[in-house]
Design a protein that fits this description.
The chain contains six helices and three strands. By secondary structure, the protein is of the alpha+beta class. It folds into two domains: about 60 residues, no CATH class; about 100 residues. It has a three-stranded antiparallel β-sheet with strand order 2-1-3, covered by helices on one side.
């Protein structure tokens, strides 16, 4: 029998004044399961999803994904960084991959500077490891991947000011960022 990808056991959440919005919830999901959460306003749907995503940790019971499982969560009201443009917010979803490329480029620039043989060897070793990680992540195509995702979700121009976007545009930017982070 297949192993559950996510398990909740006897989860309860109380809000002031001593009102349970979740009580004795037990759920388990198989890999590939498609689920829906239905309920009246204020019945705890968003709270349940925040618990599942690991955002809300103030609850009783047990809620955990299998080790190595990455859960994504898109809040009803997207949380975007107003100091960044559309591209900057989307790139948050691929921050680790982008950091690999940035460090690789940094090292490449350092080769133009004078250095000892020992320093050169250290840089070459680091660059080799970075190249392996970049290859494994398919990161050489990161810009293309971002452009395809932006086009598919019909995002505003990369340099658009986040504070001037409509609610729907902000949701699409947040969704793009989430999908590029590749949750399970």
């Amino acid at each position: 029998m297949a192993q559950y990808i996510y398990t909740m056991n006897r989860v309860a959440k109380m809000v002031p004044p001593k009102r349970f919005i979740l009580k004795d919830i037990s759920l388990s999901f198989f890999p590939g399961a498609k689920i829906g959460v239905l309920g009246l306003n204020g019945s705890g749907k968003s709270t349940l999803l925040r618990i599942m995503a690991g955002i809300d940790k103030e609850f009783d019971g047990e809620a955990r994904p299998q080790p190595g499982i990455k859960i994504g969560y898109l809040p009803q009201e997207p949380e975007l960084d107003a100091a960044k443009d559309v591209r900057g917010n989307v790139e948050e979803g691929v921050a680790e991959t982008k950091a690999l490329l940035d460090r690789f480029n940094e090292i490449s620039m350092q080769f133009a500077e004078p250095m000892s043989d020992e320093e050169m060897t250290e840089l070459l070793d680091e660059q080799g490891k970075l190249q392996d990680a970049i290859d494994a992540a398919g990161a050489w195509e990161l810009d293309r991947k971002l452009d395809i995702a932006a086009d598919a979700l019909r995002l505003p121009p990369w340099d658009a000011d986040i504070s001037k976007l409509s609610g729907g545009e902000k949701r699409r930017v947040a969704l793009c960022r989430l999908l590029l982070s590749e949750p399970d």
